Amino acid sequence: MRKYTPKDNVQGKAYYTDRFWVAPRVPRLDVEAESHFADVVKALGRKAKESYVEIGQLVVHIKATENFNVLKILKESCGYTQCSEQSAVDYLAKDGEFELFYQLLNISEAKRVRVVCRIKEGEAIESVQPLFKSANFAEREMFDMFGIKVNNHPFLKRILMPDDWEGHPLLKTYPMIGDEFASWYEVDKIFGKEYRDVIGPENRDPARIDRYDTKRFSRVGYEVPFGADISEGEIENPIEYSETVLVDYTKNSSKQLDERR
Amino acid sequence: MAQHQVNYASSAGLPIALTSVDKLVNWGRSNSLWPLTYGLACCAIEMMASGASRYDFDRMGTIFRASPRQADVMILAGTLSKKHSEFARRLYDQMTEPKWVISMGSCANTGGMFNTYATVQGVDRIIPVDIYLPGCAPRPETLQYALMMLQKKIRRESANMNNNTKSNLRLV
After folding, report:
1. Distance (Å, rounded) from C-alpha A26 to C-alpha A118?
2. Could you give the C-alpha distances from B36 to B40, B46, B75, B157, in angstroms and in order?
3. Each residue of B45-56: pLDDT tens digit?
4. How far is the alpha carbon of B42 from chain A, nearest alpha carbon, in Å?
5. For the domain A28-151, what is the CATH code?
C-alpha cells in the first residue's frame, strides 16, 4: 500500500512522487563563438555573471541592482525591443530568494533572451518601465502576486486581486483554497463580519453529502419524503423486486437431451 | 375602418373572464421575465445562444435587458470571482422587486472546478437563488427548461410576495 501523506498542505508536498522518475533536464549549452548571442554576452561584459543557451534562448544571470542597465544595453545596442514577460518565481523555501526574470525579444534577429536575477525577501527591484512600457502591468502583477516592491514604478497597485486583498496568492506559502481572509472575503465585504455565522463556512468538499438533509440529498435504498426529519433514523423501506419471472424454468416445458443428436 | 360585430354569446361566450388577482398577476409576471444580461464566463455563450434565433427566448416573453432596473431575473452565467462578488450583489440589489435568480452552471452553483482562493464557492453565499441549473456549460435547452421551471414556480406564488411560504414555492 502507498504510504499515507497528509493532504492539508498540498503545495508543501506532492500527493505522490514516483521513486523512479527522473526529472528531464533541459541541456545548457555554451554560447557559441561568433554567434549573435556571443555578441550579446560581449556587450554586457562583466554584468553577465553567468550565461548559457537553453532551447535556443540565451539565459543571462545578472545582479539584481543592475537590471535597468542590463536591459538598457540589451534594448539599445542589441536590438531587444520587446519585453514579452516579466515576473518572478518563489524560491523562498529553498534559497530564501525570489528569482526574477525578464523575457526579451529581438524581432529583427528572431532571438530571445531571458535575463534572470535573484533578490531576497523584502528587497525591492528597480522598475524597467521607462525602457519597456509592457513592464508597467507585468511589474504590477508581480507586486500583486508576490509582494515584490518595485522602485520608481509610476503606479504600483494591485492589478488582479482587489485592492483590499490581504496576502500574495502566488507565494508557495499561500494555500490554494485561500487563507482565512480569502475564505470570508465576499461575506465580510458585502454583509459584514457579523454575518459569518449566518452564511457559514465555504464548502470545499465537492463530494459532500449531508445524510440528514432530505431536501437536497436522497438516501439510496430508502424512500424518504422531501424535508422529512430523519435524525432518529429513517423508516426501513427495502427495495422490492418483481416476483414475476420472464422465463419459468421450474416448468417442464423444455426437453433436456441426454445424449448428442 | 373595418366594422366588426362580435357575437359574444355565440363565438367566445360572454366578455367576462373570472380569475383571481394572483393568477392574473402571475400570468403577467411569468410571461414577461426579463433577465439581466449577466454573463460572467463561458456559460454566457450558452446564454447568448439561448437568446438568439435558434432557441429564441423572445417567444417566451424573455427579453434580455442591459439594466438591472428593468430586469426581473438575474441569470448568473459563469464563474463569480470574489473580486466581482460585491458588484454582483449590488446589481441584485438594484433590481426591482419581485426578482428571481437563476444560478447557471457548476461554477455559479458551487464554484465548480475552481476550488481556489479567488472564486466564490456558490453564488448562494451572497444572493438567494431560485433555480440551480447544473451543467458545464448547460446547453441552451437546459437554460430554457430552467426558465420554464421558474415560470412554473412564479405561477404558484402569491401576488403579494409577503404571503409566499416555502411550501407553496416548492417545485414538484
Report:
1. 20
2. 12, 15, 7, 21
3. 999 999 999 999
4. 20
5. 3.30.460.80
How far apart, in Å, do the first and last CA atoms of chain A sit?
Answer: 56
Closest Cα in chain A, distance from residue B109 (Å): 11
* Residue A136 pLDDT grade (very low, low, confident, very high; cuts 50, 70, 90): very high
**Using one digit for the tens of pLDDT, what is the confidence trace for B133-144?**
999 989 999 999
Average pLDDT of the residues in B63-74: 93
Task: Note whether A171 contacts B: Cβ–Cβ < 8 A.
Answer: no
Chain A nearest-CA residue for B116: A177
Look up residue B70 and give its three cell numbers.
Answer: 428593468
The per-residue pLDDT for range A146-188, each reduced to its tens digit, is: 999 999 999 999 999 999 999 999 998 888 888 899 999 999 9
Least confident range from A7-16, A143-152, B42-51: namely A7-16
Burial class (CB in 10 A: 0-12, 13-18, 19+), B63: middle
Calpha distance A175→B11 (Å, rounded): 73
Neighbours of B167 (CB within 10 A): 8
Q: Where are the domains of chain A?
A: 28-151, 180-220
Name every residue whose Cβ is closer than 8 Å to that of residue A36 and which is 6 or more positions away in sequence: A109, A111
Write out the DSSP string of B3-19. Answer: -----TTTTT-SS----
Tell if the CB–CB gap between B86 and A202 is shorter than 8 Å.
no
Q: Identify which of B81, B108, B89 has the alpha carbon closest to the alpha carbon of residue A178.
A: B81
Q: For residue A160, what are the CA distances in angstroms to A118, A141, B33?
A: 24, 7, 35
Say if residues B50 and B140 touch (Cβ distance below 8 Å). yes
Region of A194 (left: φ > 0; alpha: ψ -120 to 50; beta: rest) is: alpha
Q: Which residues of A touch B82 (CB under 8 A)?
A: 162, 182, 185-186
Tell me the pTM.
0.78
A198 touches chain B (CB under 8 A): no
Q: What is the pLDDT of residues A83-106, one digit of tens each?
A: 999 999 998 888 889 999 999 999
Chain mean pLDDT for chain A: 87
ipTM of the complex: 0.78
